[in-house]
Design a protein that fits this description.
The complex is a heterodimer of chains A (293) and B (323). Chain A has 293 residues and is an alpha/beta fold. Chain A starts with a helix and ends in a 7-residue tail after the last helix. In chain B, the strands form 3 sheets. In chain B, strands 3-2-4-5-7-6-12 form a 7-stranded mixed sheet, sandwiched between helices. A 5-stranded mixed sheet of chain B has the order 9-11-10-13-14, with helices on both faces. The relative contact order of chain B is 0.14. The chains are: A alpha/beta (293), B alpha/beta (323). Bound molecules: thiamine diphosphate and magnesium ion.
């Protein structure tokens, strides 16, 4: 509860330095640029939910997770499951930036023969821990990976990212129930609460009321954070590590399309690629960066 | 390799065992030999027989409760974590309720999950149609990467379960609740993708799986009395199908009857028709559940009701002969 309050409070005595936070913000900005470039090049894809997840993915891949891009199959590595698989562009961008493959491959997104499938394929691309795309399944996968780690005496941690609309899937709650039942302290989930799904606001399509209360009722350690604040994201992960024998979820309040003014909070930008002109505008807003081409 | 059963069909009064029983026993033996084997169930462990494993290896058993989608997803995660999970529930729930989870979380990534589904087919009996999977072979065999096995008896089940544990990739094993006679010959060795000729003959090939094998053997005996020499094939691996053995039997006999406790659409009969229409078109009759749901009743009565009897197989053969 203490951790909860601290995580919820902005600024203050963060677990990371200002320099570190700036570094993670820069990585998130880079990921956002890539998301725009990749979806524009592909002519399709999901910018909205990729942009809302960028800060969480950046914090995990550039600060939190023990991984080795040179040895993606390392048995003791931390695992990340992107349950909301349509945010693949953000994950691919992070993996490339982290050195799992050459960033020049990013523009092959969604092309025939590409390792960068429309939704992540763990058999094709090193660094992808689980195939996803059919919503609602990732938390079960993460549970299984966490159980395997415990049974095999591994100290790795498992992270999973879900969408708020995705939480309408019944399987999410089957898995929520079992993660707490199995006391999976090595598991931490993030829910990207951007308030939107395809057909409109989550509140209108099918309200979840409070996802936080639901997870709490199932016995989880629940935090509410600003999903665009690197400090709070890292703090949540630390809090999850301190919570022994109980899974932690960070209900992350986010803005869909974050970082690109004309995409923010716009339901239309869920699954539509920017035109070349729109992409240019978006990249200008996001600020300078190395271009992919 | 041809195993010959010098048989007159399964001897009446010979001991019968349900394949789920053999599964429960095999799992325990696997558990002793293989520390990487873990077992999951969805509140049916006493029926699927995984409870035996649970008793001996409580730390390697996960009951997910009545949540079949989560059952498949958790099994997939355990496989991703380097273990060899066996996931069990009734066939109707494994293949039906959790189809998308099997497709997306197990088959597509080709994960090393063994789905051992019990209570397949109409011999579930009194529980009726909601619990009788007549379409699971069809559902599972259309999935890329999936191996589909339907053992004919206890011996074959035990071997198939153990073989599956060493076979890399997803496997669906279809098991029954109802006791079935032993049909595998002495010294039989199960191999994935290998059909077995249980009886030689050149007039008609009876191609069967599961409980259909003992029905075929009895039918062959009845046909012999009418001067018709029937070959009997146990096609326990539906996918990958043993094309060579089936095509060569079709070539020799010129006529084929398939027998299975499954819809006549999409199961073994469907698979055999697909194969033969391309490789060796011959007349085929499919004996199975004729595109209807099951119902409550004693298993043997239901087998008769849906035409899964040796007499029915004999009629199918005679019909092909134009008698
Ligand atoms: C089982 C399933 N049903 C439907 C879809 C189609 N779909 C893709 S994204 C999406 C909306 C997801 O909303 P949310 O989880 O809130 O994601 P985000 O807003 O973060 O993009 C839907 C319905 C799917 N991928 N899987
Ligand atoms: Mg959303």
């Amino acid at each position: 509860m203490n951790a909860e309050r601290r995580a919820a409070g902005r600024g203050g005595t963060g677990v990371i330095s200002d320099r570190r936070a700036e570094y993670l913000e820069e990585k998130a900005r880079l990921i956002r640029r890539r998301v725009i470039e990749m979806t524009a090049a592909a002519g399709s894809g999901h910018p909205g939910g990729s942009l809302s997840s960028a800060d969480i993915i950046a914090a995990l891949y550039f600060h939190v997770m023990r991984i080795d891009p040179g040895n993606p199959g390392w048995e003791d590595r931390d695992r990340f499951v992107l349950s909301k698989g349509h945010a693949a562009p953000a994950l691919y961008a992070a993996l490339a930036e982290r050195g799992f493959f050459d960033p020049s491959e990013l523009v092959t997104l969604r092309r025939t023969g590409s390792r960068l499938q429309g939704h992540p394929d763990c058999r094709k691309l090193p660094g992808i821990e689980a195939s996803a795309g059919s919503l609602g399944q990732g938390l079960s996968l993460a549970n299984g990976i966490a159980l395997a780690g415990r049974l095999r005496g591994k100290s790795y941690r498992v992270f999973v990212l879900l969408g708020d609309g995705e939480c309408q899937e019944g399987q999410v709650w089957e898995a929520a129930m079992s993660a707490a039942h199995w006391k999976l302290g090595n598991l931490a989930a993030f829910v990207d609460c951007n308030g939107l799904q395809i057909d409109g606001p989550v509140e209108e399509v099918m309200s979840l009321k409070s996802p936080a209360e639901k997870f709490r009722a199932f016995g989880w350690n629940v935090l509410e954070i600003d999903g665009h604040d690197a400090r709070q994201i890292v703090e949540a992960v630390e809090a999850a590590g301190r919570a022994k024998g109980v899974p932690t979820v960070a209900v992350a309040h986010t803005v869909k399309g974050r970082g690109v003014s004309f995409m923010e909070n716009q339901v239309d930008w869920h699954g539509k690629a920017p035109s070349p002109e729109q992409a240019e505008r978006a990249l200008r807003e996001l600020g300078e960066g190395r271009s992919l081409r | 390799m041809t195993h010959e059963l010098n048989a007159r069909g399964p001897a009446a009064g010979s001991p019968k065992t349900a394949t789920r029983e053999a599964y429960g026993k095999a799992l325990v033996e696997l558990g002793r030999a293989r520390p990487d084997v873990v077992v999951l169930d969805a509140d049916l462990s006493k029926s699927t027989m995984t409870a035996r494993f649970a008793r001996e290896f409580p730390d390697r058993f996960y009951n997910v409760g009545i949540a079949e989608q989560n059952l498949m997803g958790t099994a997939a995660g355990l496989a991703l974590g380097g273990l060899t999970p066996f996931a069990s529930t009734f066939a109707v729930f494994a293949a039906g309720r959790a189809y998308d989870q099997v497709r997306q979380s197990i088959a597509y990534p080709g994960l090393n999950v063994k789905i051992c589904a019990t209570h397949a087919g109409i011999t579930v009996g009194a529980d009726g149609a909601t619990h009788q999977a007549i379409e699971d072979i069809a559902l599972m065999r259309v999935l890329p990467n999936m191996t589909v096995i339907v053992p004919a008896d206890d011996v074959e089940t035990e071997q198939a379960v153990k073989t599956a544990a060493s076979h890399e990739g997803p496997v669906y094993i279809r098991l029954g609740r109802h006791p079935v006679p032993r049909v595998t010959p002495e010294g039989y060795e199960f191999e994935v993708g290998k059909a077995t000729v249980l009886r030689q003959g050149d007039d008609v090939a009876l191609v069967a799986c599961g409980i259909g094998v003992s029905i075929a053997l009895s039918a062959a005996e009845m046909l012999a009395a009418r001067g018709i020499r029937a070959a009997v094939l146990n096609v326990s691996t539906i996918k990958p199908l043993d094309a060579r053995t089936i095509v060569s039997a079709a070539e020799r006999c010129g006529r084929v009857v398939t027998i299975e406790e499954h819809s006549t659409i999409g199961g073994l009969g469907g698979a055999v028709c697909e194969l033969l229409s391309e490789r060796r078109p011959v007349a085929v009759r499919r004996v199975g559940v004729p595109d209807v749901f099951g119902q409550s009743g004693p298993p043997d009565e239901l087998l008769r009701f849906y035409g899964l009897t040796p007499e029915n197989v004999v009629s199918a053969v005679e019909e092909m002969e134009g008698r």
